[in-house]
Amino acid sequence: MSLDGKIALITGAIKGIGRAFSEILLKNGAKVSLLDINTSEGNELKTVFDSAYGEGRTCFIRCDVSSETELNDAFQKTIETFGRLDIICNNAGILDEQDWEKMVSVNLNGVIRGTLLGLKHMKKEEGGVIVNVSSLAGLGPLPSAPVYTATKHGVVGFSRALADGSSLLGLGIRINVLCPAFVDTHFFKSEINETLAALQDARNKLFHQFGVLQLRTHCCGVQHVYRPVTTGPDWFSACSNCFNYRLS
Ligand SMILES: NC(=O)C1=CN([C@@H]2O[C@H](COP(=O)(O)OP(=O)(O)OC[C@H]3O[C@@H](n4cnc5c(N)ncnc54)[C@H](O)[C@@H]3O)[C@@H](O)[C@H]2O)C=CC1
Ligand SMILES: CCCCCC(=O)CC\C=C/C=C/C=C/[C@@H](O)[C@@H](O)CCCC(=O)O
User: What residue range is the signal peptide (predicted)?
Assistant: First the structure.
């Protein structure tokens, strides 16, 4: 897959799935705008990427996706730096059932905003790809995390509707939604709250049922979603253990 000359923007790019996706894009020739909330780790990662892939291939922008202003500015800065935008991955997400309103702002509002900004900034005639990261909890319940489940169902519904809209309107932008099962990242350190602790057994059953994928395995499996648009808009959901899982 050659992505030479393509410009990508990834939210939550410093760790876990976002970092792995950034590397896939860099290895395939794209330039990547890395958005995340942690400035010092972001600058460190840029230095690592500079020596691995060459200077000028990435920029780091401190950005909290729950802030409309910060996300707007980050899109603007990316275009000022690289001149265009072809690929967007709305990946940033948290699991915090206690501070659930913040979780809705990050997991759902952040994805909606990032997608709408993508539609605004991508050039119709040159196409574009938007990859929204949901979860298997976007397709069925994760009982220990009901609000998380709601946000991820929201991401699936939003992406499906918009993908159909993009297709009907001939926008030339493909919307993908990923629904990974468990992937071994920093996310696993998230605590469930006390009320839900009794549901840990249910979560453990799901661990047993779906397994816990290593990052490398998960990301190798989904890298085809970043292929440039060639045949017009399309959409699909790729589960970690069920690739090309198609909902419509
Ligand atoms: N790890 C897993 O088992 C699964 C994860 N997912 C989803 O994948 C996405 C990435 O998760 P992981 O890589 O596992 O998590 P992670 O916790 O390892 O990395 C998340 C990254 O997002 C950044 N971030 C957090 N809040 C942010 C905000 N407000 N604005 C910008 N950046 C922010 C963090 O600083 C971090 O770099 C999330 O949306 C998560 O819901 C979906 C299914 C399974
Ligand atoms: C503690 C770590 C949290 C990780 C957060 C995630 O997003 C991981 C989600 C992983 C699994 C969720 C599974 C939910 C499964 C069931 O509801 C199942 O019935 C879904 C079936 C979907 C389908 O194929 O129709």
Answer: none
